[in-house]
Amino acid sequence: MKFGDKTLDERVENIKTFEDGELIFEEGSISGWIFVVAYGEVEIFRTVGEKHIILDRVHEGESLGEMSFFGHYTRSAAARAVGQVGLLPFKDHYLIEEYDKLPNFFKVFLEAMAQRMRSLMEKVTILAGNPKILELLDDEAKAEVIKRKQD
């Protein structure tokens, strides 16, 4: 996968592969890596008690792990492979070089966005654990929730 930026393309490490169901990273872990999905699909989830709440599915060309980089936090959710997955890892020191070139006001925006996303994930996790939330959803959203529960 090329990013159209020679400097960026050269900084991509080798593709890491994961098998179906394999954990990519754990919620609460500390990591200096951001990943871009080269192929496959990754499920982002949180665990409440023994229940896994799926927050998102990340596909080819999309990134994961960026919230911990921009917010300087531990991982706010876990990630696992859905089928075979290939990820392009970016080590944080490469990203820090580019990030440090940004104006400070832009860094504040990015960090605030990461914090808002983290807060939103907390709220979604709480709501997803509440069976009465289904009553508030439209038919399409209800069908998606029911489908994910069956998976």
Report on the structure:
With 151 residues, the chain is of the alpha+beta class. It has one domain: Jelly Rolls. It contains 5 helices and 6 strands. It starts with 5 loop residues before the first helix and ends with a helix. The model has no long low-confidence stretch (mean pLDDT 78).
Question: Nutshell version of this structure?
Answer:
The protein has helices spanning 6-11, 66-71, 92-99, 104-128, 139-150, and strands at 16-18, 23-25, 33-48, 51-59, 63-64, 78-91.
Overall shape: globular
Radius of gyration: 17 Å
Please state the oligomeric state of the protein chains shown.
single chain
Provide mean pLDDT, rounded: 78
Q: What is the name of the CATH class? A: Mainly Beta
Number of strands: 6
How would you name the CATH homologous superfamily? Answer: Jelly Rolls
- Strand residue content: 25-35%
Order of SSEs: HEEEEEHEHHH
CATH architecture: Sandwich
| Helical content class | 25-40%
What summary fits the major beta sheet?
6 strands, antiparallel
Distance between the termini: 30 Å
Which structural class do the helices and strands define?
A: alpha+beta
CATH topology: Jelly Rolls
> What number of structural domains do the residues give?
1
Low-confidence spans: none
Number of helices: 5
